[in-house]
Structure formats: structure tokens, C-alpha cells
Write the C-alpha cells for this entry.
Amino acid sequence: MTSGETYEVEVKNGDEREMVLDGPLYLRILISRVKIDSSSTVSYIQRTLPELDNYMTSGDNNVNT
């Protein structure tokens, strides 16, 4: 069993149980979250980029609006 908040893994040795910090587990979770965020960002850009021409025209091509 793992703890998502502290990135600990339960290690069993016979009847003894111990919670151990797991750096690779933490890294894996970070990478998966970054990948999800990146995929969402790419999808958003792909959906909104075709609307850029209309947006720029509506603001008289002023990039500060």
C-alpha cells in the first residue's frame, strides 16, 4: 500500500511493517502529472489557435488588448 500524500510505501518483513519514503514513486507521480498537464495544454492550444485570426481582427490587431 502507498500513501499519495507522503510518497511512502509499506514494506513488510514477516510480521513487521514499516513505511519507507520512496523517491522513485514520487518522481513517477510528478512525471505523470506533468504529462497530463502538458497534454491538456497542447489540446487547449490546438483548439484555440484557429480562433487567433478572429481575435486579433476584433482588437484591430492590437496585441495589448
Notes: The two ends are 51 Å apart (CA to CA). DSSP finds two helices and three strands in the chain.
